[in-house]
Specification:
This is Jacalin-type lectin domain-containing protein. The chain has 237 residues and is mostly beta strands. The protein has no helices and 20 strands. It folds into two domains: 71 residues, no CATH class; 144 residues, Vitelline Membrane Outer Layer Protein I, subunit A (Aligned Prism), CATH 2.100.10.
């Protein structure tokens, strides 16, 4: 795992290479403060393959897109000007739910524009968030797994921001064992309260901090969203 110390550290570039079958076999990350180890295989003289470099002068990476099946086939990046997004006093609130799954962290932005929530028969299986950063929209990665039930979308209007996120979570029996999953999410803004997305049952926690708005999400996911937390920042006039 490669962790970035947000908000003072940001990702500048990603380099790597793909082999003759067009599978990405090695990747390395560089921030404004450090460079990661190589993930996968480092390319040496004599190795056949295509170099990959995701980098734009005076910009930072704020999101990813690409294609994968059993391996990563392609990778692209979304960029934003470094100077256009001044650092904000965002705060990371502890996530709630279970401890299963892989960690994910979208980071913090100016605000949230749209949230997609997918469900399966047991609870919330997928979440993806679109953020506003200055004048740009930033699409966070999808976390979890989409099911045939599809996704529902909660979209915010201009001037609207999320003040709290209600999280229901419970233990289910799946894959031959007990796992804790998020069963429902509910969003409260300065203008409205959403319907619950999912099944309201189990433990309930409201993620919020007085005088702040939600500006980012993090958590853990596998075939379900097991855990979810938020970043908050002061509401400015």
């Amino acid at each position: 795992m490669f962790e970035i110390s947000h908000p003072n550290e940001y990702l500048l570039s990603v380099k790597g290479w793909s082999d003759s079958s067009n599978k990405i076999v090695g990747i390395q990350f560089t921030t404004n403060t450090k460079t990661s180890d190589y993930y996968g295989f480092e390319k040496y003289p004599g190795d056949e393959g295509t170099d990959i470099l995701l980098e734009v002068k005076d910009k930072k990476i704020v999101g990813f897109h690409g294609f994968a099946d059993t391996q990563l086939n392609s990778l692209g990046a979304y960029f934003a000007p470094i100077a256009s997004t001044p650092l904000k006093p965002s705060k990371k609130l502890q996530a709630v739910g279970g401890d299963e799954g892989a960690s994910w962290d979208d980071g913090a932005f100016d605000g949230v524009k749209k949230i997609q929530v997918g469900q399966n028969n047991d609870g919330v299986s997928f979440v993806a968030v679109e953020y506003q950063n200055g004048s740009q929209k930033v699409v966070g990665g999808g976390h979890g797994k989409q099911s045939p039930l599809g996704v529902e979308t909660f979209e915010l209007t201009d001037g609207e921001y999320i003040t709290s996120v209600g999280v229901y979570y419970d233990k289910i029996h799946a894959e031959g064992r007990g796992v804790t999953v998020v069963t429902s999410l509910k969003f409260k803004t300065n203008k409205q309260i959403s319907q619950p997305f999912g099944m309201t049952g189990g433990e309930y926690v409201e993620l919020k901090e007085e005088g702040n708005k939600i500006v980012g999400f993090h958590g853990k996911a596998s075939n379900w969203v097991h855990q979810i937390g938020v970043y908050v920042a002061p509401v400015t006039k």
